[in-house]
Every structure is written in C-alpha cells, then in structure tokens.
Amino acid sequence: MDKVLGNTSGLRPAQLKSLSNLYRRRIEPGRVGSPELARNLAELAFDIRREVSVLIDRRGRVISVSVADAKAAELPELRMGENRLAGFHLLHAHPKGGGLSKGDLSTLFLKRLDAMSAIEVRAANGEGQPGLVHTAHLTPPGTVGEEEDWRILPPVPSFQIDEFDLGAQVSALEEEIARAARTRQATKDRERAILVQIDQGEFDADERLTELAELARTAGADVVHKELVFRRNLKPGTLVGAGKLEELTSRAYHLDAELLIFGQELGPAQAREIEAATGLKIVDRTQLILDIFALHAQGVESRLQVELAQLRYMKPRLLGAGAQLSRIGGGGGSAAGGAIGTRGPGETKLELDRRRINDRLSFLEKQLENVAMRREERRKQRSRNEVPVVSIVGYTNAGKSTLLNAFTHATDEPRRVLAENKLFATLRPTSRQGFIEGIGPVVLTDTVGFIRDLPKDLTRAFRSTLEEIGDADVLLHVLDAASPGADTRFDAVNRILEDLGFRDMPTVVALNKADATDEDTLRREQGRILDTVGEETPSIPTSALNNRGLTELREALADAINRVQREELAAREEVRERAAEWQ
Ligand SMILES: Nc1nc2c(ncn2[C@@H]2O[C@H](COP(=O)(O)OP(=O)(O)OP(=O)(O)O)[C@@H](O)[C@H]2O)c(=O)[nH]1
Ligand SMILES: [Mg+2]
Q1: 89 CB under 6 A from ligand 1?
Q2: Atom 9, ligand 1: which residue's CA is nearest?
Q3: Which of 69, 269, 275, 466 is most buried as measured by Cβ atoms within 10 A of its Cβ?
Q4: Which of 420, 424, 521 for mutating ligand 1's site (highest number of atoms within 8 Å of CB)?
C-alpha cells in the first residue's frame, strides 16, 4: 500500500485503503483532473471530514496523496530550475466547501506549482458530491497591471474539470519566464537585490537603509527595492515574520531579484530559515561588509585580516549546515569574481572543511602577528625621526584619501592613493610626506574608514591597523558634511575612537565636501561640533576636490602640532625638574 501522507490518525483501515488507491489514478496529461477523480476526492474528504490533496505530475500520474490542506501537503523536495515551474499541480477537496483559500494561493506561489485547484464538497443523500472546481495559476513575473501573483479562473462544475488546457497554460507561462530570463542574462551582470532594514524605533533607521544601499552598490549589487520594516519585537526565526517574507518573495519574483540583503546581522539558524521560506539567497550586513573588504583587500596584511574575519564569521555558520557549506564552496572564487556574500581574498579558503578551519585560523593569527611585529619595527624607526605624524580618520567615503592626495599634491600617479566613490576603498594604511608651513615635513597617514556597528570580527582582525592610528601626534577627522546624517556619522567615528582609547588625542575636523552643500549647513555642523567636542577641536570647511580650505586646515594642524610639541616639551621639562629636585 502506498503511503498516505499527512494527518491520518484515527482513520479506519478501509478509509486508508481508499486513500491509498488514489495513487493508481491516472488523468489525461495537461488537464487539472478528471470528473472521476473529482468525485473520488469529494467522497473521501466528506467521509473523513478532512481535506484530501493529490499532487499530479505532467504525465497525469498521482505522485502523492495527503490528508492535509494545501499548505501542509507534503511536496517533494523541489529542484526548481530558476526558469521553470515545479512540474506538478495540486488538486484537493474542501469538505467544508469554499473556493481557494489564502493558504492555497500562497502555496501555489511559493512552491511555483503548475496550478492549484480546490473542489467544493457538497453533501447529498449522506454522501459527498463534487461541487464547483476553483483553479488558479501563476502570472508571468513582472506582469504590468496584474494585481496578484496568480490568476483565479472562473469556477466550473466538476464534470467540466477536464476542459481547461493546463498544458498549454504551463508552456505559455514557462516560455514567458524563460524569455524574461534571457533578457535578464543579456542585460545584467550585477546581482539584483532587495534590501530590508528593520526599524525598531532607532532615530537613524532611514540612514541605515541608505547606507545599506551604498554598501550593496559597492559590493556590486543592483538594488531594485529597499524597505524599512517596522518591528518593535523581532520574531526569533524569521525576524520579520512569515507574512512579510511572503510579501518579499512575491516582490523578488516580480522584480526578478535573487538576493535578499538584511541590514542587521543574522544568526546562522535565522539565515537558514529565511532562505528556506523565500528560496532567495540571503546576505546580511556583516557579510556584505566582509565581501567589500574581500574585494578591496590588497597587500599581504589586508588579505590575511579579511580572511581571518571571514573565517571567524563563517565558522559557526558552517557547523551543521551541510547544504550551505557546499554553496559557499561553489560560489567562492577570486576576489574579483564570485557571487555576493561568497567572495574571498586571493585564493579562497572558504571551501575548507570544518575540521581544517581551526588550523587555518591559528595559521592566520600567527601570520598576522609576524606582520604586526615587522610593522612595530618600522614604527620605532619612524618615531626616532621625530617627524610629526597626522592620522586621517573618519567615516568611510568621507573623502580621506582624496584629502590626502590634495594635501600632498599627489594628484598624479604614482604617488596618488586610490580614492573612489565606494565604501572601504582604502584598507591599508598609507603614509605620505607632506609639508606644513611653520612645522616642516609631516607624515600623513590614510587608513581604513569607519562605519557604525563595525562587525566585531572585522574590528578584531583590523585591530593592529586601527591601533596604528594611536601613533599619530594629531588626528585629522574627515567628515562628509554634505550627505545627510553627518552628525550620526561624526558620533559613530568618535565612539570607535573612544573604544580604541584615542578619544583624548588632539583632533582637527575637516568638514569635507563643502562644495556640495551650503554655508548654512556648514555653520550648523560647526556649531554642533563645537557643542559636542568643544573649542579644543576646531572644524574647518574643506573641499578636497576643489582645494578649498586647505590653507586653513594646514594652519589648524600646525596649531595642534605646536600644542602637542609644547606639551611634550613641558612634560619633559617637568621630568627634568623633578629629577633635579632629587639630586
Ligand atoms: N563633492 C566632493 N566629493 C568629494 C570630496 N572629497 C572626496 N569626494 C568624493 O567622495 C568619494 C570618496 O572619496 P575617498 O577619498 O575615496 O573617501 P575615503 O574617505 O578615503 O573612503 P574609504 O577609503 O572608502 O573609507 C569619491 O568619489 C571622491 O571623489 C569633496 O571635497 N567634494
Ligand atoms: Mg580611502
């Protein structure tokens, strides 16, 4: 006896037998069902007072029988090609009557069924009789003017159930899906992504979403939709809840997106659950940032740091995730190629089996220690020269590298450092010699940009790079004063500096991109900075693009360096006096 799935508890053997006999039914290929099968289903559903579902493949064979509604009916593991439908449709009987339910329709959509049909059951002479048959099928992706993801056909009496040409409908739809896919192939080399930022009432939720879009763009995604989802309380499994995920899946279908990017870090189980519910590729903010770092990593140290951060992030996600492991391995590749969320620096190590991850982690840590030691040597050398050092810090994309170029007249290769409208363009600290009137030669160091909620794996991996900031005599904090949310970015950078223990270092602020904003905004920012950090920290409007404000910036830096040198002198003086007292 073939196995009847679903809730069969309490059924009599004869009832089970009749249900199992459904497996022997055959219908004409390309039809929804046959009048005989409809009668059969209606009688059985009436008899057991539960919904009965059969799954029928394109050759007209019954491939599964379940005592369950459409949503709970067990479907075979779907091996959907992107461009086709599931290859079977579901026919089921509603003992309580009624047309297609919301659950029926969302199952149709989420499982990409060829069609979904419900037979209303009517009682007559103490028996179940098939009433109207309701059928729905999917609409082509991106259909304009279509209200829903499906089209519900006018109901027909059960004796006309075999009149609808499902076969023709399915081929037309698949042809349309394939055509859309061909156009997509021809026009896109970027992954199309939908962004979701959860808003739990943070004041900067909007900015976070905008920033997520910038991150996605930098990682090479084409953002086709982004939305802020307000949730005071998060659902443990899916964060936003099943209904919202369904809505997003539908949107992805119509916008032809394959990637769903979340603005917060997802736990390993969450990512898996959301992936299972939507069938989309899921990437979180941390993964996105790691990805960008992987793309931009140049030089031994940055590559080691990025790989270390990636492995630390991956490790808990690989445990007990067989399916994901193979996908990570499959998608990985060179830094330039590969899909978003799977890129590794240089030769990717993400294929590593779990056993070897720990080995690789300790190897990387050791290597980084060595690099850090060599760097320490270099630092000592430099401090002996007693050339003042200015560290350029600030939020990513603030214009740090551009300003360094402008400052050191390094607009021509090969002295020019890379400046780009991409987040985290700079990962490796780069030093240049500059000259400041009244001070003489100074060293300016450009470094990796900051971002709010910097993933902790990255902070740890880049610790030594970040610590080098502390070697400076003066910090030059570059702020993009032209983009919205300058204040939150300023605060985010200060918070990170504070975490690193550099909050007390003498600082000069450059209100950069002054060319792209108005004087009122600049004055307002200056006022705000004065209120938060006091007049010890001057702020100068600059434009690294137009060389505006560079003279004033030099003067402010000269003042700050002078002050540091005077303080050092005074400190040394004090030490000497103390020593003299003791003699
Ligand atoms: N309008 C305007 N754009 C600027 C200015 N300075 C820099 N930019 C632009 O801002 C973008 C980022 O510049 P970068 O110098 O790469 O910024 P960064 O702070 O080094 O960024 P990361 O290294 O990614 O952290 C580039 O597209 C620059 O052309 C400016 O004064 N005005
Ligand atoms: Mg830079």
Answers
A1: no
A2: 399
A3: 466
A4: 420
Task: Name beta bridge partners: 432.
Answer: 444
Does residue 239 have a pLDDT over 60?
A: yes
The two domains 188-287 and 386-572 share their CATH topology (first three levels equal): yes
The answer, as to whether pTM is greater than 0.80, is no
Q: Please work out whether the CB of residue 297 comes within 6 Å of at least one atom of ligand 1.
A: no
Distance 499 CA to ligand 2 centre (A): 21
- Residue 408 scores a pLDDT above 90: no
Overall fold of domain 188-287: Rossmann fold (3.40.50)
CA distance 251 to 240: 15
Q: Does residue 512 have its Cβ closer than 6 Å to ligand 1?
A: yes
Tell me the domain boundaries of the chain. Answer: 5-185, 188-287, 297-366, 386-572
Between 94 and 428, the more confident residue is: 94
Average pLDDT, integer, range 515-535 = 94
Q: Which atom of ligand 1 is nearest to the CA of 426?
A: 23
Answer whether 513 contacts ligand 1 (Cβ < 6 A): yes
pLDDT band at 60 (very low <50, low <70, confident <90, very high): very high
Terminal-residue alpha carbon distance, the chain: 105
Q: Rounded to the nearest 10 degrees, how much is the dihedral formed by the CA atoms of 69, 59, 150, 100?
A: -30
CATH fold label, 386-572: Rossmann fold (3.40.50)
